[in-house]
Amino acid sequence: MVQLSRLLFSISLLAVAFTAPVKRTVAQVEADISSISAQVTTLDNSIKAFPNTGGSLVSALLIHTDATTLESTLSKGTSDVTSTGVVSQTDGRTILDQVEAFVPTILDALSQIAAKQPAFAALPISGIPALILQDLQTLKTDTVNFADALIANAPATLKIEATQLVNNIAAGFNSAIAVFE
User: Residue span of the signal peptide, if any (predicted)?
Assistant: First the structure.
């Protein structure tokens, strides 16, 4: 009976160990941001490559694929940021600088995709603009969730600056979404 109790206790400890949330590190968050930045650049390049007229369905679907990949990375990043907890002033500044570095690329991608809406609408399959709208809405949600997690874990001295950055990105999404609605 004592051995059975010890066995059950050991199994319980293992179960708790495997189900406990894994604390992430600032290095993991920085790696996530690097990955997000690279994927934002990939998406921006795919959008730039799509012509103003005469685009192909394959090129439009590549943009959708790039958006979907970015959505997944943003979700993982949000989870990692949440698991990391509050960061130091130095780490917070590094993270904010890292994000600020690719914001112009995000805004460029949003501006480019909005400008090319007529080209997407002219494709032989009429659902492409709706698909892009859905991608934009999902990317906005995922981006804001990621940013909100960063802000929640940022030092108080960086929260206002980070919030302004998020507001600028959200405004860019809102403008692009409005074109596709």
Answer: 1-19
